[in-house]
Amino acid sequence: MTHKKQANFGAGGGLNEKIFHGKRNSDFVLISENDVEFPCHKGFLNVHSSFFERMFETDCKETQSGKAKLNLSEEGLKAFLDFVYCFKSDFPKEHPRIAVELLEFAHEKQISGLEEAMKELIVGQPHDWMDLIDGVQLFLLSVKLDFEQGYDDVKKAAVKAIKAKRDQLKDSGSLQGAFDV
């Protein structure tokens, strides 16, 4: 009896990770804010986002050129693709700024799986996980999105993160007077 090796499609590696890192047969390029190009595959983007699915069905300039510039940092775009191909969220867990960036991007581009993963990641972290600026950015984002998607838990996590950094808030020249602490 012969045993066939099965492809691992789960988080953390396997075939999808090889496809992503090998960049074989890529048919599209995503470009970060600082113009770093990431070859990728339309099929993976389609599966995760109706935004990308609609884009690829139209004759827009991105589809014609095979490239799209996104409003993501280089690190954010890499983390986005790690999620798309491998369902990884290791980098955002280590870098709160990237988690906030991905949360906003996922909401904007209708990537519900990533949006929910970032919400869960953010809400599940200790209060001192993010710095003051990230906490304030998360709070402002959660207020903006709360009317649409129910961001109460994210907003609470942002408030707790801000409170955990009270000393930084008092010392911050750019935020001085913005909050009564």
TrEMBL record:
Residues 26-93 form the BTB domain. InterPro entries: BTB/POZ_dom, SKP1/BTB/POZ_sf. This is Kelch repeat and BTB domain-containing protein 3.
